[in-house]
Amino acid sequence: MTSAGVPMAGVTADDRLPGASPSRLSPVARTAIVAMLLLVGMADLVVLDAIVLPRTLAHEVRPAPVVPAPSAPALPSAVPVGLAPAPAPVAQELPTPVEPAANPPEALPALLFRRNAAVLRKDARATLERLLAVMTARPGFHVRLNGHTDDIGTERFNNLLSWQRARAAQEWLVAQGVDRARIEAQGFGASKPLGGAIIPSARPQNRRVEIEFR
User: How many CB atoms lie within 10 A of CB 193?
Assistant: First the structure.
């Protein structure tokens, strides 16, 4: 309908859209508009499915770029001689201090005997007491008693007598408590006279027992 109130072709007063002018669209025009809207909506869906959605998904699932791990630096095959580490100091064992050897005891005079006798004299006992004091103070010391005779008598007799004289001194020390294993007694007869020669005036000194520490 025009402004003059004359109705337009295809439009009726009942076909007006809300908010439109008092004139109404015809059913044919309304159908055409609805069909057009449907086509536009379907086109939007096609575009969304075919272009936008694949790109969005591809962007979301795109794997992160793989960054290669840094490789370890290669070790040198040999250390330069000038840069080789100093060897660790080796602990050296200190030598065990050696205790100084005990001073040998003072030499003792020989034990003298009467002719053809093996009985200890008084002066011989006094010397044995000095020997006993040394052996008691120094348990590590041993002693050797060497018996001798003069040149009078047979060799067999003198050998036996010289041993008996040494044995008499040994038995006296053992009786005082000295271990027998620390005392050695032996006889040489007349084979070792004083001075290396047989002198008649030296016979009393050859009837003797010499004390030797070892």
Answer: 18
Residue 84 lies in a domain: no
- 106-142 pLDDT, tens digit each: 899 999 999 999 999 999 999 999 999 999 999 999 9
Q: Is the pTM of this model over 0.70?
A: no
Q: Would you give the DSSP letter of residue 75?
A: P
- Segments forming the whole domain that contains residue 145: 111-213
Number of domains in the chain: 2
Does some domain include residue 105? Answer: no
Map tokens 């580490």 to a residue. 85
Q: Are 144 and 184 in contact (CB under 8 A)?
A: yes
Distance of CA 22 to the CA centre of its chain: 113
Structure-token pair, residue 49: 């499915």
**Is 128 in contact with 173 (CB distance < 8 Å)?**
yes
Instruction: Say if CB 33 and CB 20 are below 8 A apart.
Output: no
Same domain, 115 and 184: yes
